[in-house]
Amino acid sequence: MDYTKYIGVTLNFPKKGISFKDISPLLRDKEAFHSCIDDLAKIAEEFKPDIICGPESRAFIFGAALAYKMNTGFVMARKAGKLPGVIYQITYQLEYGTATLSIPKDSFKPGARVLLVDDLMATGGTFAALKELVKMAGGNPVGAVTVIHLKDLDGSDNCGLTCKWLLDL
What we know:
- Helix content is 29%, strand content 36%.
- Helix 2 (30-44) packs across helix 3 (58-70).
- By secondary structure, it is of the alpha/beta class.
- Strand 5 (87-94) and strand 6 form a beta hairpin.
- The mean pLDDT is 95.
């Protein structure tokens, strides 16, 4: 399926120079959303994940649906201050600021094959940080899948993971 027509674009959001990719039209269309999850599962199969992990918040949508489709669990990497208890945490640079992600200390069995998922890959910074966070928690990050890959930003070359995606923009 050509997902291009299901991705909205808003220029200069959240700040000047950024082109926001809106997945809302994709999520609203039941055929497109189902097809997207099926296609993500196809490209994710080669990673043979034990569990899937994705960062807040849009990755929760795709990651949970993909985990269900692939019969695995899903770990939510939450923003700073959103998790109680003992956590691992990492702060990293975004194209327009910094962000912090956290996961519970007991998120993964030692050596678990963890597939990272998000809606979009830009510079690769979120995936690079998430990879390190998974390692802190004893997981083995085996790759990354996204719906959208921004080809001009080289994120797939910068995050240190084998990456697969459905749409190159």
